[in-house]
Write a structure and sequence with these properties.
Structural class: alpha/beta
Radius of gyration: 16 Å
Shape: globular
Number of strands: 9
Order of helices and strands: EEEHEHHEHEHEHEHE
Strand order of the largest sheet: 2-1-9-8-7-6-5-4-3
Largest sheet: 9 strands, mixed
Number of helices: 7
Length: 203
């Protein structure tokens, strides 16, 4: 998954689901630091793997899958958790906020991204683009233990770049523009996470 950081400083998050520990270590040794996992149990097992703990001390885990409220404790309890990229409701934001106050290091905030369903597909999670401002306002004003890192989307699968700019990527950028204008935020502080292995360059 591609992350846009202040436009000119991209970060590549390696989606490591289904990949064995040895592959993660190999990528880490080549300089990769950010890894994304979709499933809670797989993330818990990898993050606590003795070999990864010993050889990948600066690894940063991003949770990029759908997170159920009853599994928040498991995710927030792992070592080297860097970010939750899939906040899509006030309920989940509230649970993350409360749980981090108990499990997170004192004086720290949990980085989160708001997931937006830019393609508006029923089978995908994420808040409707029209509701992004409301959820963003809730995170900023009601969740003192969360730090808003930006917005994330999983675009419609199979889009052909030859057809022009990806509408999902344009939509996410539009959402960023809207929340910055509505809530008085600096766009440089609102990162965008979008794009997969087939379209990260366009993202």
């Amino acid at each position: 998954m591609f992350k846009e950081l202040q436009l000119l400083r991209p970060r590549l998050v390696g989606a490591s689901k289904y990949h064995p520990v040895k592959s993660i270590i190999a990528a880490y040794e080549e300089g990769q630091r950010d890894f994304g996992e979709n499933y809670v149990q797989e993330l818990v097992e990898k993050a606590n793997d003795p070999e990864i703990l010993a050889k990948c001390k600066q690894i940063k885990w991003h949770f990029i899958g759908h997170l159920q409220s009853n599994k928040v404790n498991k995710v927030l309890g792992i070592p080297n958790l860097y970010m939750i990229e899939t906040v899509d409701s006030e309920k989940l934001a509230s649970v993350l906020n409360t749980t981090w106050s108990k499990l997170g290091p004192p004086g720290t905030k949990l980085r989160v991204m708001i997931q937006v369903n830019t393609s508006r597909e029923e089978v995908k999670d994420g808040v409707n683009p029209k509701e992004v401002s409301n959820l963003t306002r809730f995170v900023l004003t009601e969740c003192n233990n969360l730090e808003l890192d930006g917005l994330m989307t999983i675009g419609k699968y199979g889009y052909n770049p030859e057809d022009g700019p990806n509408p999902d990527f344009l939509s996410l950028r539009g959402c960023r523009d809207e929340i910055c204008q509505t809530l008085g935020l600096n766009w440089k502080n609102i990162n965008l996470s979008m794009g997969m292995s087939t379209d990260y360059e366009q993202a």
